[in-house]
Amino acid sequence: MRILALVPSPYNTAPGQRYRIEQWEPLLREYGVQISFAPFKSEELNELLCQPGRRWRKFDLLCRALVRRAKLIRSVREYDAVYIYNEAVLLGPAILERMIRRAGIPIIYDFDDAIFLPYTYISPANGYLRLLKFPMKTRAICRIAAHVMVGNAYLAAYARRLNSQVTIVPSTIDTTQYRAGARKDSADVPVIGWTGSYSTIQYLDRVKGALQSLATRERFRLRVVGVPHYQIEGVDVEALPWRPETEVQDLLPIDVGIMPLPDDRWTRGKCGMKALQYMALGLPVVCSPVGASVDIIRNGENGFLVNTEAEWIDRLSCLLRDPLLRERLGTEARKTVDTNYSAVLQAPRVFQVLNSAVRGSDRLQLPETNVSGTRQNNPEIARPLRSA
């Protein structure tokens, strides 16, 4: 089976596609699936988009990217299917996707964010690009796709209004790279960790007050990975840039992982990737009860779900003071990843999705797993695929 993967970024540069199709690719190869990656952005454009200025060079590179995408139409018939992560083209409506469909090639559409909403979190350096985004293209691609994969139940509820062939496949962890036994214990004071990017640093800002209050009563260091210049008055902060080659190593000194989020339509589409990274390393997590977090985390068993500033302070204080509590929750956190969120576990399900799209099957039987949570009160979980 030959699959053309249309992805936004060059290989191993974007967390979203790395924790989905890139991570599954070597495992799918064992099923006879050959994936050819076609990123929209060149290496230069990918780097420049993170920087201010140089608008004319960015415009030139965007035009070149559009030309490369258009030329792909000539070769799509060489593949059994086209996998699209988020969108085939960074900007504009779903023109290329419709051309692929007219060529008779099945599309497997995969997204793990609420990209059907107006996107307001583009880097301040490139906020003008928001004017060229077409969030409604998500609706169009869902309609023409042979199958839609999404990262959580909230996204599935949207997709199922447009397509009957929808499967929840959570973002996964390579458990051979993320190992609980590889953790480094803190040499001096406990470390609270957060990982993200310039576009998500606003979420960490939401708990600034809690961390400042916590620092008046507990000794700890805050490690921020993904934003190299970040400070909170009164808090000992260590800020690092995100680098794919040291991603795991940069998280190893952390004792407690945090993932604060506001509760809005955009964040409900979040698939809990940061929490899963911490948990795979055997770390306890403290998260806002938003998006996939409510399915991943069993409050008080493998982590904590908190709402108020007082709750953030209380739970973090308990974890900083009690190494045995950190160990107990961290052990359960790793078990959660092994049971539901490992790449090895989910790759066979991804293969069946691809195979059903290629063969044109309208009924897909997937192996039973507790993907995206085990809550009795979430009916979207028990049935990874159902008619709209």
Structure, described:
Helix 8 (208-215) packs across helix 12 (309-321) and helix 10 packs across helix 13. The strands form 2 sheets. The chain has a 6-stranded parallel beta sheet with strand order 2-1-3-4-5-6, sandwiched between helices. Helix content is 37%, strand content 13%. The radius of gyration is 21 Å and the shape is globular. With 388 residues, the chain is of the alpha/beta class. The chain has 15 helices and 12 strands. The chain folds into 2 domains: 2-172 and 342-382, 3-Layer(aba) Sandwich (Rossmann fold); 180-340, Glycogen Phosphorylase B (Rossmann fold). The model is unreliable at 121-126 and 372-388 (pLDDT under 50).
Give descriptors for this structure:
single chain, 388 residues, alpha/beta, Rossmann fold, 6-stranded parallel sheet, 15 helices, 12 strands, 13% strand, globular, disordered C terminus
Q: Could you tell me the mean pLDDT?
A: 86
Which range does the strand content fall in? 5-15%
Principal-axes geometry comes out as: globular
- CATH-derived topology of the largest domain: Rossmann fold
Cα distance spanning the termini: 28 Å
- Contiguous uncertain segments of 5+ residues: 121-126, 372-388
